[in-house]
Amino acid sequence: MSAKRTAKSSRSKASSPVRSQGRANLSRLRRLTDAQIARTSPDELRNLPDDFWRDAVPVIPATKVPISLRVDADVLEFFRESGPRYQSRMNAVLRSYMERASKLLTSRGKRRGIA
Predict the structure, then answer these.
(1) What sign does the CA torsion over 73, 81, 24, 95 have?
(2) How wide is the angle at C-alpha 61 spanned by C-alphas 100 and 85, nearest 5°?
(3) Nearest Cα to 93, choosing from 79, 109, 108?
């Protein structure tokens, strides 16, 4: 088997003093004032119009299915160089292709794959 395996830590997650990445400290966030939140906002989010989120629709992310996928080395390197979450970006590219291909197939009334 050529896949790399990572060793699992013997410590339990509950005893780990470091929070896992991506988990919010909700009690701390609830204590923040609007002014504190505004000071920490990225520049591109600071001056949004009041109605910016009015028509927003929450989307529950689809469950991911783990697979083994073989890609060309340069393709993998391209996505890895873009930083963390490169697999999510690869998924976004595939989703974009899928949605575009589905529209083309529907408009043509065909069910063949698109190369």
Answers:
(1) negative
(2) 80
(3) 79
